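$ run holo --ligand "glutamine" --emit tokens
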Amino acid sequence: MPICTSKADSCGIHDVLLLLKPFRLDRYRTLAYNCQRFSHHCCGVLSNHRGYKVVQRNTDQADHEVVIEALRPFGTTIFTEINAIAAAFDTINLSQGFPDFDGPEEIRSKAAEAIMQGPNQYISSIGLSPLRHAIARKMERFYGVAVDGDHEITVTSGATEGLCATLLGILEPGDEVILLEPAYDTYAPISAIARATIRYVPLLRPDFSIPKEELANAFGPATRCIVINNPHNPCGKVFSKEELTFIASLCSQHDAYAVGDEVYEHLVYDDRVHTTLLSIPELRNRAFVISSTAKTFSMTGWKVGYVIAAPELSRAVRLSHQFITFCGQAALQEAMAAALDFPNGYYEALLSEYTRRRDLICDALADIGFHVYVPEGAYYVLADIKPLGFDDDFAFCRMLPEKAGVAAIPSSCFWNERRDGRDLVRFCFCKKDPTLEEGIRRLRRWLT
Ligand code: PMP
Ligand code: GLN
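-- output --
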């Protein structure tokens, strides 16, 4: 039975991976699902390899009549595509950033108890009060920033909904949004749905520094906000206080907002410090800081995130949030409220574990022959494939599961112009040591 999965990558190429081998259906649920949606639109074989046929869809048709114009260029996310290819092989999956271990048992037991005890009904739209106040305590403890848990915090369904509620709450059609490239894949589509215009400013290699003059020139009368991801996915950049102060002065000058995606705030390596936008005086009333418990407590599936902003700004977030999800889940929020109050030792242990994992994978990738951009924060490493004789990250990542038994993300999906990241592949290292070691062993076997 033919099974296919659709793919419309970030650069707008629409194709379909058609799997003609007889596979076990239970292992290929995603593929089977996509098959139902797209198999009718397959035509023209692009390539053949070991029983797989990569075929082009007819045109940009069918779903385009249904999908709004603003969304059409984006297609299925790279994470879904690579996970589907990875699932077709025996892979060590270092693509989508989720741990292969669960967060502390204590948090999980608390959530389980809360579910059993109930109530299991809708809660306040802005989130449980104990969670909001725990977030406020954490902001004071780690950054010395006083936040009002009642009027300045909104709990959302992960940082993803926090970003969505914020951008949809503040953007008018025609407003300009500045994105620093590479940019995490959520910012552009949400801005596009809001009918905003995106202005990209590329961070400069090798240290992904801000091109100050170019950034200053990108600001103008139509600028509504800039999105700053710190620590940065995918490049691991940690912005300094000086850089953020420079951005703050541009925001003040142009009366623009700063939207901070700080989900990796507790993964900052080598004695660097995380500077939250809210600690920059000029941004205290201009910043929306979005974070999540997903990374800090290794529970990406719970989707407990939040937005912190001055009361006036929070009003915009709360208005849109109430019509997107209305509220989150009581039990998960109750458990995360307790987690956020964990002593400093928890956060220190998390960081030292991740520092070790980062060093393990960076040293090994360099030894295999990649040029490695050692991350200052977050849990991804960008590796340059040129020294190994490759020059196309998409081609490399599409063959990696079959050739090496490893999955990774082609980093050019984080750039608007694909050519800018074509030489870089992103590996995540939020995995147990044996997983990382096996992934490294497999890469070494294929590439050396
Ligand atoms: N922002 C960045 C930079 C991310 O890497 C991710 C992925 N975890 C998110 C936001 C989404 O976070 P959440 O899972 O809490 O929605
Ligand atoms: N943040 C994850 C990553 O960058 C992806 C999460 C998602 O698929 N939305 O790998």
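-- notes --
Residues 77, 79, 96-97, 233 surround glutamine (ligand 2) (CB under 6 Å).
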